[in-house]
Amino acid sequence: MSNIYLQKLKELYKVYQFHGGLRGSFFTILKTDAFKIGTLKGTDEFGNRYYENKAYFIGRSRWIEFTDAVGFDYDASQIPPEWRSWLQYSREESPVEKPAIQHKWLGKHEENLSGTSGEYVPYSTAKPKIQAWQPPK
């Protein structure tokens, strides 16, 4: 029985080392709510790192660690389409192992800035239907 506990402690220590000790492990749990170890499958042009560990259940065996440049302000639109299809098990090989077909009409991937301060918000050209109240002078 104690052999099982010893094995679990060894696995925990491996994961602890994988994430860079106490500080790295703390920030990994804080950012991702997960404490996993896996094989680095590749890095995209934005610096996001993609991992896989087939010992985990399907749906949990592939994951992303977003670049440190975005801090805690990350979302799914920051993942390029070729990596998203790999994360969602639409393709078996990662884009590093088998690159996606690049068509000349495809544009470069950009994150969706809706709801952020960097969003383009056009001004209205319509006249307002209600005039703002002006206090008496």
Write the layout of secondary structure elements.
Elements (H helix, E strand, L loop, with lengths): L1 H17 L2 H12 L6 E5 L5 E4 L9 E4 L15 H7 L50
Antiparallel strand pairs: 1-2, 2-3
Helix pairs in contact: 1-2
Structure description:
By secondary structure, the protein is an alpha+beta fold. The protein folds into 2 domains: about 35 residues, no CATH class; about 60 residues, no CATH class. About 25% of the residues lie in helices and about 10% in strands. The chain is built from 3 helices and 3 strands; from the N terminus they run ααβββα. A 3-stranded antiparallel sheet has the order 1-2-3, covered by helices on one side. Helix 1 crosses helix 2. It is flat and about 85 Å long.
Give a quick precis of the structure:
The chain is of the alpha+beta class and 137 residues long. It is built from three helices and three strands.
SS element count, helices: 3
Shape: flat
Output mean pLDDT: 86
Fraction of residues in helix = 25-40%
- Poorly predicted spans: none
How far the N terminus sits from the C terminus, by CA atoms, comes to: 85 Å
**What percentage of the residues does DSSP assign to strands (E)?**
5-15%
- Main beta sheet, described? 3 strands, antiparallel
Radius of gyration from the CA trace?
A: 23 Å
Tally of structural domains: 2
Order of helices and strands: HHEEEH
Structural class: alpha+beta
